[in-house]
Structures
1.
Amino acid sequence: MKNLALFDLDHTLLPIDSDHEWGEFLVRTGAVDPLEFKRRNDDFFEQYKAGTIDPVEYLEFALGTLARFPRKELDAMHAQFMAEVIEPAILPSARALLRQHQDAGDLVAIITATNRFVTAPIAKALGVEHLIAAIPEEDEHGNLTGKLLGVPTQGVGKVTHTHAWLAQIGTPLDGFGRSHFYSDSHNDLPLLSVVTHPVATNPNAVLATHATRLGWPLLHLFND
């Protein structure tokens, strides 16, 4: 039977948080108000790490920021972001782990709470075809409206989106021989708890404690 390998993105395959770094990039390049935007971006990041973030409130903030810019300008900004921030952060250890599953013939996907505008080029750079991410609404010209389509891909939302994606491709979760999910965060415990092979990857303290108690493997991808 074919196996499934799911990967969180930020602090799992990347040693950074791409969503937060995108906000820092906007501040650094002068695209947004440097004081107010940075304050809100940092506040949301701390809430995420604490597991208290309201994903809809955050996504409305993030997508509302994107909606200020024409799509052509956004795409040019993102290309600069990839070159300056993301590509230097893609490490050989992450590529090797992905390639291990790809070479084994596993179905590989990235599932992330960060929106698809930010993450689609990152998934492509990592060589991963399938991406499950928060979906921004676009108008008829491809510009972002600032609205979210569907439910956020965070917490139990990752389970919902995983099942929906697997239904589209015609294989339910229990139709795989093994299902892996690699994540760094306790925010992903709902999805980690429903796969057959959860892997706490670069885990935060809460996840490390939980994983150790349940006997889940701990993988320190950027230290080994």
2.
Amino acid sequence: MAEAQRSKGDSMMKTAIVVFDIDGVIRDVGGSYRRAIADTVEHFTGGASRPTLTDIDYLKSEGIWNNDWEASQELVYRYFEAQGQARTGISLNYQHLIDFFQSRYRGPDPEQWTGYIGSEPLLCTPNYFKNLTENQMLWGFFSGAMRDEALYVLQGKLNLGIPVLRAMEDVPGKPDPTGLFEVIAELETEENQQTPVLYVGDTVADLYTVTKAKQQQPERFWIGVGVLPPHIQQADLERRQTYQQNLEKAGATIVLNQLEELTPAKIKDLIS
């Protein structure tokens, strides 16, 4: 489908380019990535600390912990620092931490993905992207997930063909906007240069990415779209409001409850 959207529209002016984060936007990772973070922190603190979803949200609200391996490591360090230990004296093998995290997220056998990844609910349907294409909108993905884990949902569950994607292995992590720029460059044609761009994400790092993109390419029209992840939608009003305010402070023009509220009509309103 991604190849089709490019070949069909190469000589036709598009109304917008929409780039999506994946985790918390396309799929619900509250019971997978975030559960794996909690398991990892618990394991490497000897069972002394298991962060809640609120704890993880608080860390990610700092805007620099988009990588979940690094977030897990940071939470381990902060636990031991709170016990009076200096960070430099904490023995923590980062590769061992990654291996443990992956054994929970993918499963103990890297060839048989039996871990938490298999139970991630989808937050949109293939028709959502078909509708964007039919309304002369280009789309792609910029995610902090590993490429094969991103394709697991984009190809394996949503059947999106060969989507335009930048993942963990491809570019620096968010909030560095390099991946966003590369997705746009791959989608863009001569007729569609300077087309308005929307970046859709659920974390502060995602919205900081848009802010940095605006700073580096001020000649383009940028819109940051925040989406409340499922575990926040289920939280109390005060927590939902705080989460939304954090996204807005980071650069969100609008914050939605779910991705499919970002209809072609809504996109046209935002760029008009």
3.
Amino acid sequence: MVQIVLVTLGLFALLHIVVFGRDLIKHKDNLGSGSWPISIGIGFVTDFLDTLGIGSFAPTAMLLDVTKQLDTPKDLPGTLNVGHALSCLLEGLIFITVVDVDPITLFSLIAASIVGSWLGSKTVTKLPASTVQFWMGWALIVTAVLMALRQLELIDLLGAGNTATGLSGGLLIVGIIGNGIFGALMTIGVGLYAPCMAMVYMLGLSPLVAFPIMSGSCGALMPVASVNFIKEGAYSRRVSLGIALGGIVGVIIAAKFVTGLDLSILVWIIIFVVIYTGITYIRKSRKPAAA
């Protein structure tokens, strides 16, 4: 099953390279505005953060706005998806290869996220995004507090000790349902990384196991989303290519950093990421929706 996941991600990577590459060659004389050094730098920083589980979309959107890299705000969604697709795929390939994870758990949770995103595009998008973000934000903060108490050995969660590399029975069903929900919530802007990190920990898995699951899930989703943006030309070609080039380097460096960390330190990093994401969701829920 691990080989099936790796081959699938490899095919998605090939699809993205072909579609993206053909469009770049077709428009090689006019790649649009933007600075190569700034775009590459943005890709490096944001995909380094993405590999740590913090996410890349929000930091990229902020940096693109500050540096005025895009001609029109309408190109932002496409630029985010096209620019970060390859680096996210690389994250998945690296973590699935180097992190010990049960094949059935890996395959099931990634498949669940894909199904969830498809169902979510038809159902969850009808929900008020601000309400979902608000309650998800508080849920993440509460979860992070429980994780911290568990780390301080003040409480015990499911008695698993956070050393398992796979799920079975009822816990596997909970994981499948959870990741399916997170995949669905991605369609209204609730990222999968932090909730997946929290769920994996709460189910007693080793904190490292979250990385191949969450990066594999998103790595399978983003290339598909990118195809339509590329076909419509609704993205910045120069900026997206710069982000992709810088992002690949950022992922390689960050992956070595993550896999070399002591697990107790990694848990505290995950707790910080989950709290940060929870606060971000609550703040976003209180802002008026953009037109």
